[in-house]
Amino acid sequence: MTDTATPATNIPTAPRGNNLRFYGMWAIGAIALVVLPLIFSSGGALTSFSLIGISIIFALSYNILLGQTGLLSFGHAVQYGLGGFMAVHLMNAIAAHGWFIPLPLAPLAGGVGGLAFAIVIGWVMTKRAGTVFAMISLGIGELVASSSLILRSVFGGESGITTDRTALPHIFGWSFGPQIQIYYLIAFWLMISTIAMYALTRTPLGRVCNAVRDNPERVEFIGYDPHVVRYIAFCLSGFFAGIAGGLAAINFEIANSAYLGAAQSGLVLFATFIGGTAYFVGPILGAILVTYLQLGLTSVTSVWQLYFGIIFIAIVMFAPGGIAGIVMMHRPLIRAGTLGTVIPAYLVSLVPTLVLALGVILAIETVAHYAESQGSAFSLFGIPFDTGSPLTWAAAVVLIVVGFLVARITWRRVAEAWDRATTVARERGYLA
Amino acid sequence: MTAAIEIRAVEKRFGNVSIIRDLNLSIEQGERHAIIGPNGAGKSTTFNLVSGHIRPTSGEIRLNGDVISGLRPFEINRRGLSRSFQVTNVFARMTVWENIRCAVLWATGHRYAFWKNVDDLPEVRRRTAEILESIHLTHRRDVPAGLLTYAEQRELEIGITIAGGADVIMLDEPTAGMSNMETDRAVTLIRRLTEGRTLVIVEHDMSVVFGLADRISVLVYGHIIASGTPEEIRNDPKVKEAYLGEEAH
């Protein structure tokens, strides 16, 4: 038989070998978690890190559904919120009965809460993927969120249920009052959950989840019931979402209906998508960025949600692979040694793009401040502006128009440089 | 000896339209059986009925003696029947290696395990590598299936179909859209991979059918009008009239 095989390529192989680099990355992550609060020790920084840690677990659990199994959920906060309530109730029970269960185990109760609900509701929900699953998840989300306001004894109504994390038995002399101790508690669970969720992607189930995502019909013809695969994935995802919710309840010492709501579900979808669903690291990057932006923007501008919307639309339109997708696109270029040829084009286009962004920000802020109180003054990046002055409006328009016109030319340059670099990479066999 | 596949009085109606009428077919174990017939005769529907993709309106289908009509595709697959698709139907975003490995997992007993490291299963790795080698795609193992050439995707399709070790293999137009050279290559591949198994094949390319099959059935308007050895089919007047006659002869 004639061999028509194409020549062997240098396309990188799956994570065989490279062991040192693989474990090195995890070690660096663990060390960073330990060292971070020593470098940034202010109260604000600790609070931020804690929230970022929680949202990383939450976003990773969401990606078990979206990125790995192809399930778009609009109600993932249900498992998160129920985990939070479960943890709060357990903590209050421990304090009331004087059981010897220390606080670090409370997030596990959250996980069990999320898992239990997923086991009960999941079988019906995961019967179908696609639009049907998305719609049911939306409905269940609304159902649980509204029930939480009705069932006052369990969910505490509008005000929610409070708890006192320091009332639990202390271990190692830690009272878990100070934020630094809570940070380390979250960091501990973050590490455990991340390792577990990564390991999950490397199991037979994890691999078949990908197959169900790509082609559920075909999966039926290799012996698997896609419904069962989706169900197990949904349950495990609910478990980790519950852990995140439990940690949030410990962090805020309260669980309320906002934990379960559509806004919370939307935020995790947002973070996961921006980070990129195709790579394990994507949701981590997305959760860091979105939480950081959320904390940062709310103190600077009243219309922070508008910026979120713009970022989201931009990612969906121009980089559907998210941040991780953009980063990973460059891997073959690095291997082929052609990354250097695109960097100058990036730098050149950065200037007009920033000008365009500044124009947009100035326009949004001017409109927002004008709508609040006509003719008021505000400052942006330390520069004072007056919404009543035509000069301000003109400046915004000029920045946007000039920025866009110049940026468009430089973007074209970027595309050309990119094409050249990938062609070379392909010729050298680093790209399929 | 019980037949590998036994189709008895199967009928399939979509609304008022009968696609399959009183279908009777028996395929012996180890036989290479081709189903031919003009477009719209119900060949793919027959495949879909046997593999559980759709349910028969009435009648009975048996696999190695057991009734399988009404079962879901994965239940039928677990009993040892595997099929390929006319339109390439692979896991596009997964690598070639992952495609084959997923098809090996159930048969090696790992099922829905989420507590085992998939890279750490020697039996799975051995079988995956073996199948990859046999479909000549070892050098493409880390390429996403969606980026393969058409002929390579067809080979992968066959690889996924045989990976689970099923003893009844059904191939739906495996050489459709291939060049002559690719077709020869595919036929050699199919002959070798289905050695000792039962093969049911739907094919339009008559050189493939007559070169490969031990027995041939001719399906016209959802009904089998003739069934026999290639020689018998070639000389059957009904077949000549209904099918071969129409085609350029």
Description:
The complex is a heterodimer of chains A (432) and B (249). A two-stranded antiparallel sheet of chain A has the order 1-2. With 432 residues, chain A is mostly helical. Chain A folds into 2 domains: 22-305, ABC transporter involved in vitamin B12 uptake, BtuC, CATH 1.10.3470; 331-427, no CATH class. Chain A has 17 helices and 4 strands. Chain A has helices at residues 19-39, 43-69, 77-97, 106-125, 130-150, 152-155, 179-201, 204-214, 216-219, 226-252, 262-275, 282-300, 304-318, 322-329, 331-336, 343-372, 390-427; strands at residues 161-162, 254-255, 377-380, 383-386. In chain A, helix 2 packs across helix 11 and helix 12 (282-300) packs across helix 14. Chain A starts with 18 loop residues before the first helix and ends in a 5-residue tail after the last helix. Chain B is an alpha/beta fold and 249 residues long. Chain B has a domain at 1-76 and 204-249: P-loop containing nucleotide triphosphate hydrolases (Rossmann fold, 3-Layer(aba) Sandwich). In chain B, 34% of the residues lie in helices and 24% in strands. Chain B has helices at residues 43-51, 73-78, 96-105, 122-134, 150-163, 180-193, 206-212, 230-235, 237-242, and strands spanning 5-14, 17-27, 32-36, 58-63, 66-67, 81-83, 168-172, 198-202, 215-220, 223-228. In chain B, strands 6-7-8-3-9-10 form a 6-stranded mixed sheet, sandwiched between helices. A 4-stranded antiparallel sheet of chain B has the order 2-1-4-5, covered by helices on one side. In chain B, helix 3 packs across helix 4 and helix 3 (96-105) runs parallel beside helix 5. The longest helix of chain B is centred in the middle third of the chain and has 14 residues, at 150-163. Chain B is globular. At the A-B interface, helix 8, helix 9 and helix 10 of A face helix 2, helix 3, helix 5 and helix 6 of B.
